[in-house]
Write a structure and sequence with these properties.
Shape: globular
Order of helices and strands: HHHHHHHHHHHHHHHHHHHHHEEHH
CATH superfamily: MFS general substrate transporter like domains
Number of strands: 2
Number of domains: 1
Radius of gyration: 21 Å
Distance between the termini: 18 Å
Strand content: under 5%
CATH topology: Growth Hormone, Chain: A
Strand order of the largest sheet: 1-2
CATH class: Mainly Alpha
CATH architecture: Up-down Bundle
């Protein structure tokens, strides 16, 4: 019985676990093919770094807007229904890149990204707590970390697609050089570049539709304590009385902000500080993601021996150290420090998620929405960082390096939550048990 208690994924749930875990890779693809597009759109459409970063505002704004509607839908129906709606919206948003690229105007792309991430919000609001429910509660955080380990594999594929199918195919002219082009030639160049952006998004749409059909036909377990009654206000009151939960939502917002800032602006750091091309800079982004993947599996193993809160705190301190290296050390060493931050971030999202929802029972459906809404951090913070970069020089720092004080602050917040988790919240959970 004790052995069964510590099983990460029960045998009878292995196939459903694999099917739902495939969705983690799909939204990883969307996240990380999109990060380099901030720089790409800025160049193609001759915009500032702030304007280009509105890609992230639209992308992560969709997560925020749809999280609670998704949670209420899942509460009324099921995790499976939420996943199917999410996949449908994801595919629909990706297909909107066809009319957006034909229009050659920026705002239709923002609409496409927003629709895509409304779907991703459904997916994440459904899949994360569904994975938590697929086995014993004491292994829930390890189980979610295992499923989330396949998210960066999709991210790597997305980064490779961005590098080889988009960035490498763009016209090399800078934004300033495009301004001086003959209008007819500029329109031709812009059309080809936007078609290059469109291609991988349309391709992933068809992959998503195949996955949607497979999951629709598969027999997936329902939640054993399924309760279709929606007592929204009562649930919110219970959640807001749980410090571990609402502190987790705040921390998750800062974590997602840090993650998106680090991965989005690796390209800016490499191109503006070191003079690398965008395709070369994307190579370092891919190295960062490979490190993230390996670290995710290592950290999932370490959770067997180290409490989630303690390990979260140690990694956040590591993130602070690497971020300071990025700010204060110039040249390639600074870039290596920036890449190294990814090793520390690997554990954070699923662990914060698991800590915040531990022991929530059916309230986890609504609680999950708050944690997905926290992805708003990825919408707000990159434009702020982009506006800092547009300043040029801040005190004795280049604006690119100075902008990394923003993710440093985020890691401070995560460190505090990790410390509180294993010193305060953990002891309260143990006392309750």
């Amino acid at each position: 019985m004790e052995r069964q208690k510590h099983v990460v994924v029960p045998k009878k749930l292995v196939l459903p676990f694999i099917l739902i875990t495939s969705c983690f890779a799909l939204w990883g693809f969307a996240n990380d093919i999109t990060n380099p597009m901030v720089k790409a759109f800025s160049r193609i459409l001759m915009m500032s770094n702030f304007e280009g970063s509105l890609v992230q505002f639209a992308f992560y704004g969709g997560y925020f807007a749809m999280a609670f509607p998704a949670a209420l839908f899942i509460k009324r129906f099921s995790y499976k229904a939420g996943i199917l709606v999410g996949l449908g919206l994801y595919a629909g948003g990706a297909l909107l890149f066809i009319p957006a690229s034909i229009s050659m105007v920026f705002w239709p792309f923002l609409v496409a990204y927003f629709v895509m991430t409304c779907g991703l919000s459904f997916l994440e609001t459904s899949a994360n707590p569904y994975i938590l429910s697929m086995g014993p509660e004491d292994t829930a955080t390890r189980r979610l970390n295992l499923a989330q380990a396949f998210n960066p594999i999709g991210s790597l594929v997305g980064m490779l697609a961005a590098q080889q199918l988009i960035l490498a195919r763009l016209h090399p002219a800078s934004a300033d050089e495009r301004v001086a082009m003959d209008p007819a030639f500029l329109q031709e160049v812009t059309s080809k570049d936007l078609a290059a952006i469109r291609f991988p998004y349309v391709g992933i749409a068809f992959v998503i539709l195949v996955v949607l059909v497979i999951i629709a036909l598969a027999k997936l377990p329902g939640n054993q304590d399924q309760n279709h009654n929606v007592h929204f206000s009562e649930t919110i009151k219970r959640l807001l009385k749980t410090k571990r939960y609402y502190e987790g939502v705040i921390t998750q917002m800062f974590y997602v902000g840090a993650q998106i800032m680090v991965w989005t602006f690796i390209i800016h750091y490499a191109t503006m500080e070191l003079g690398l091309s965008e395709a070369e800079a994307q190579g370092y982004n891919m190295v960062a993601m490979a490190i993230f993947v390996v670290s995710r599996f290592i950290c999932t193993f370490l959770l067997k021996y180290i409490s989630p809160g303690r390990l979260l705190m140690f990694l956040a301190i590591g993130g602070m150290a690497f971020t300071l290296g990025t700010i204060f050390i110039q040249g390639m060493t600074g870039l290596y420090a920036l890449v190294g931050i990814s090793a520390c971030m690997s554990l954070m999202f699923p662990t914060i998620y698991g800590i915040a929802l531990r022991g929530m029972g059916d309230d986890a459906k609504i609680g999950a929405a708050g944690l997905i809404m926290a992805i708003l951090g990825g919408s707000i913070m990159p434009p702020l960082m982009g506006s800092v970069i547009d300043m040029g020089v801040i005190f004795s720092f280049s604006a690119v390096r100075a902008s990394f004080f923003l993710p440093f602050i985020c890691f401070v917040v995560i460190t505090i939550y990790g410390y509180r988790t294993y010193t305060i919240h953990h002891s309260r959970i143990a006392a309750a048990n």
